[in-house]
Design brief:
heterodimer, A: mainly beta, seven-stranded mixed beta sheet, 11 strands, globular, B: mainly beta, six-stranded mixed beta sheet, about 0% helix, about 55% strand
């Protein structure tokens, strides 16, 4: 089945530093990748949609200069949290579409990245 | 935009019993309804999905039903096992697939031995 690899699975950083999270589709080409944020015991909040080779589309209220998204290839998207602060601490999850049977447009999630900003 | 309501927020059932989680959606144009299972500290995993041209779909102990008229869909898990304990999310999309999914708030399913 379709696999999406997300790295790192957890990261701790100091306030003011930047953190990069990678999302890779391992056995399929993902034309579209999505980035979500999830607070404890909450649902997934879509942050942005990224298409290979074009600028990401951010959801309302998400700072694009704070959360930089790059989708340089059909198998890789990165999320960089710039100048991280404690309030950015969260569980970030990526997903990719295109990995279903016969190329069906289903969504496959990565395992998530837990960010803790001290 | 689409609004997805999910109930209950927590569901506790005895091992071996059935569990049912229900979702309603607001936009009649929605045509794709996946269900995801999320275990603690992990990303959600697709467990079953249904499209609007089908009323029911089954995969072993898991089934999903869709009532387009009432705009609701349900997840049914039979013969529950401890490993079914997790948070389950329903979602709806108007674009026939992964794009534009709106998620419910999740149901914490607890299987009691």
């Amino acid at each position: 089945g379709a696999v999406v690899s997300q790295h790192p699975s957890w990261v701790i950083c100091k306030s003011g530093t930047s953190v990069k999270i990678e999302c890779r589709s391992l056995d399929f080409q993902a034309t579209t990748m999505f980035w979500y944020r999830q607070f404890p015991k909450q649902s997934l909040m879509l942050m942005a949609t990224s298409n290979e080779g074009s600028k990401a589309t951010y959801e309302q209220g998400v700072e694009k200069d704070k959360f930089l998204i790059n989708h340089a290839s059909l198998t890789l998207s990165t999320l960089t949290v710039t100048s991280a602060h404690p309030e950015d601490s969260s569980f970030y999850i990526c997903s990719a579409s295109g990995g279903g049977d016969s190329g069906a447009n289903v969504l496959t999630f990565g395992a998530g990245s837990r960010l803790t900003v001290l | 935009g689409e609004n997805v309501e999910q109930h209950p927020s927590t569901l506790s059932v005895q091992e071996g019993d059935s569990a049912v989680i229900k979702c309603t959606y607001s936009d009649s144009a929605s045509n794709y309804f996946p269900w995801y299972k999320q275990e603690l500290g992990k990303g959600p995993q697709l467990i079953i999905d249904i499209r609007s041209n089908v009323g029911e779909k089954k995969d072993q102990r898991i089934a999903v039903t869709l009532n387009k008229t009432a705009k609701h869909f349900s997840l049914h898990i039979t013969e529950t096992q401890p490993e079914d304990s997790a948070v389950y999310f329903c979602a709806a999309s108007m674009r026939g697939g992964a794009d534009g999914l709106t998620f419910g708030k999740g149901t914490h399913l607890i299987i009691q031995p």
